[in-house]
Amino acid sequence: LQGRMLQAALNAGVEFRTGAEVKEIVVANDAVTGVVIEKGGKQWQISARLGVLLNAGGFSHNQEMRDQYIPHTRKEWTHAAEGDTGDMHRELMRIGAAMGQMEEMVGNQMFMSPTGGPVGAQMQLAKPHAFMVDQTGTRYMNEGGSYMLFCQSMLERHKTVPAVPSWVIMDSQFKRYHMM
To answer: How far apart are CA 134 and CA 141, in angstroms?
Structure first.
């Protein structure tokens, strides 16, 4: 989706401003009419005639929002960009935007390795010699399936059985050949 949006914007001759953080959404007469950005330490207002398209990211590094919308998850478990703090979500809520899928967790699932920080999990778990279990020791998903189902299954399972975090069971072959 993002690639197609970029392609359409490039084809339309859209002017891009990188390194410009959106600080505020401007609303007039119940319509979004622009944004206030900060670039180079200065704030600038950019007006829009036909609307504003926002591509906001998520809130992986905002523990307060995680606690509210995706309980039992930790910001320390993410490899998302440091700027993924939910600032735009909060700004959208400030102006009364309808928010959806705030409880969804999309991304690359991570191992917390005993010898280091987070390591990508799902691509590793799709390989032989390892599987994942909840905190009762029960395997509850196809680890090699859809990355969306991976997160959804874990969060759904956690509603009835502790599954966040889950545990990876592996043999020496997996550790030797697949662990980064």
So the answer is: 10
Residue 45, token pair as written in the block: 């207002």
3-class SS shares of the chain: helix, strand, coil, % to 5: 30, 20, 50
Kindly report, residue by residue over 118-150, the tens digit of the pLDDT: 667 777 788 888 899 999 999 999 888 887 788
pLDDT one-digit tens code per residue, 57-73:
899 999 999 999 998 88
- pTM higher than 0.90: no
| Coil, strand or helix at 109 | coil
CA distances from 18 to 29, 37, 89, 137, 174 (A): 29, 11, 20, 47, 42
State the CB neighbour count (10 A cutoff) for residue 65.
18
Name the H helices within 72-133.
Answer: 87-94, 122-125
Nearest to 109 by CA among 137, 145, 151, 81: 151
Contact of 23 with 43, CB cutoff 8 Å: yes
Low-confidence ranges of the chain (pLDDT < 70): 107-108, 116-119, 179-180
Residue the block writes with tokens 């339309």 = 12
Residue 104 CB partners (closer than 8 Å, separation 6+): 70, 151, 152
